[in-house]
Amino acid sequence: MTPRFATDVVTFYHPDFWGLDSADALRAWALDNPRTFWARVMDVLAETGVTGIELTFAPGGIDSALRAFGSAASFRRELAARGLSVVSAFIADADAPNWRHGDNLPAIVADAERRAAFLAEAGAEILVTGLPMRTTFGTRPPFFVDAAYMTRMADIAHAVGEAVSRHGVKLALHTESHSTLWYERDIDLFMALTDPRYVWLCPDSCHIALGGGDPVAVARRHSPRIALAHWKDAVGPIDVHLTVDDTIFARQQPYMTALGTGIVDWRGWADAMSRTPGAGTVLIELDEAADPVAALRAGTEVALRAGKQVALRAGAEAANASWE
Question: Of 2, 151, 158, 323, which is the most buried if we count CB atoms within 10 A?
Fold first, then answer.
């Protein structure tokens, strides 16, 4: 069965696509014109065959959708009229209470519940978030991602996961580059400490590869807990000693590339994804594409080709087995 294709709204954040000269100008324009912003995003998606969206930080977030359409139900109807739907929403660091601080759990849970209520009304069931960022290597005093730290993160994830589950929403943790859920070891440790009934995984093939990890191996180890995955390619491992500050995300950009032009093993990834609870959705993440239509069409073609290779191999194995 062909999966549903989706993309993160960040795909549409390139200023050139809007005829603007900077990201700040786009945010300001979209803040004043949220309905026009969403109308163009929806129209472009309708051209590409990509039918699902992941909401993210401004200008393509929950608050923007509410300003444009007034309610999650109205937003859902607008999407449905074009054959589209919400898949998930991503919580960005700047938009939510920081998990690093131990005294703000009520605020963290309340923020997640608000988002989960929106998602449930919008017809989606996955809330994606990440763990806090690492500090720059060499910073004093040093910050260690150790068992004590991960236990605190697991405790918060349990509280949030249980709270959003009451809305029918799954909490899935994203493997962001330079975060405390980046290296293969980070992922394995966190998943071992969390309850699979309340905490899920959203692996990002690009970010895992940037950390020198093997995205396919991670996906295979944790396949029963993958609710959703971000399909993104990487040119190669990134400098792990980059300064971690407000510019870190922009400095990651040169290490990301279009699907099929980097180092990710897409057939292996597609095979691993086919064995997960999130197999029905392929979310292609293309940060700030100047030409979203061309980029999404090219990305879906790479994913489809990888999926067909997996299906053909599975079919051949099944045929061979029938002769044994």
Answer: 158
Distance from C-alpha of 179 to C-alpha of 311, rounded to nearest angstrom: 34
Which pair of structure tokens corresponds to residue 294?
Answer: 């061309």
**CA distances to 38, 41, 139, 201, 297 from 5, in Å:** 18, 15, 41, 19, 10
Residue 154 to residue 271: CA distance in whole angstroms: 29
Q: Is the dihedral of CA 93, 263, 14, 2 positive or negative?
A: negative
CA pair distance 171, 123, nearest whole angstrom: 15
Task: Give how far Cα 170 sits from Cα of 33, 43, 109, 242, Å.
Answer: 31, 29, 14, 32
Residues 207 and 157: their CA atoms lie apart, in Å, by 21
> Closest by alpha carbon to 144, among 135, 153, 152?
135
Which residue do the tokens 């960005």 mark?
92
